Amino acid sequence: MLYQALGLEVPYFGHISLILGQDRTKMSKRHGATSVEQYRKLGYLPEALVNFLALLGWAPNSEQEIFSLEELVENFSMDRVAKNPAVFDIDKLNWINAHYLKRLTPQQVTELALPHLQAAGYIDESVTEDEKEKLAQFMALIQEHLSYAAQAVDHVDVYFHDQVEFENEEAEAVLRDADIPQVMNSFKQKLAGLEELNAAAVQAVLKSITKELKLGGKKVYMPVRVAITGKMHGPDLGQFITIIGKERTLKRLDSTLAKIV
Fold it and tell me: Which Pfam families match (predicted)?
């Protein structure tokens, strides 16, 4: 009646089913973030949230799961809205957001991650454009592993910290192998002698060591990785060394190996 009194066209109203947590109880704070604003602050993208929320209680007439706003408008229909409660699947949201995150440039991902890196104390608010561009190079290495921007905090310690800490005893044990001294001496010498530092050149150095010392790749690549990052797995080694540079790489090698007694 109000619309009619104002001379406005009466809209159609629809109602979707209740949204439940993954334990199939009513959504509440104990399920984690429950507002759109909270998710945006964590670095979830608007287009991903719209895509995900549209699929809560509504099923498209296909196997398609990634929808642009225009595609949602074109495909949505009330007759495919379910009557049963929908479950808020955070894993599904993370998968959808990761898809959209991969479409961004490393520079865009860096901008999204900056507030979280600043809050974690990795970088201050006076960060320069050169520092951001360097960080973007590293972000390109981890971008495919991120579900949302705030997760960058869990990956950047290897970039910012030159004092390497072993992730566990197994990683430390890698550097106690009998072949470590000759592997490290050879790598440091060859790395220092490179005229141009790039990923291909680093890979060539590592490969040449395996041949010269007649060792398997795991006996060379993993010890170098552990000595530089403290971790047994991580981003491409050649690209990572190129990003942090010779000086920082050699400094890390020396300080880490000094811990092995």
Answer: Anticodon_2, tRNA-synt_1c
What CATH number is attached to the domain comprising 242? 1.10.10.350
How far apart are alpha carbons 163 and 253 in whole angstroms? Answer: 10
Tokens found for residue 102? 């991969």
Of 81, 100, 119, the one marking the end of a domain is 100
Task: Say whether 81 sits in a helix, a strand or coil.
Answer: strand
Q: Say if CB 42 and CB 148 are below 8 A apart.
A: yes
Residues 40 and 24 in one domain: yes
Domain that holds residue 50: 10-100
Tokens of 242: 């190129």
The candidate with the shortest Cα–Cα distance to 109, out of 120, 98, 93, is 98
| Whether residues 15 and 95 fall in one domain | yes
Torsions phi, psi for 166 (to 5 deg): -70, 135
Task: Specify whether the CB–CB gap between 249 and 205 falls below 8 A.
Answer: no
- The pTM is what? 0.83
Q: Under a CB-based contact definition with an 8 Å cutoff, are residues 164 and 227 in contact?
A: yes
pLDDT in tens, 23-76: 777 766 655 566 778 898 999 999 999 999 999 888 888 889 999 999 999 998
Check whether residue 147 and residue 194 sit in a common domain. Answer: no
Say how many Å lie between the first and final Cα of the chain, rounded: 84
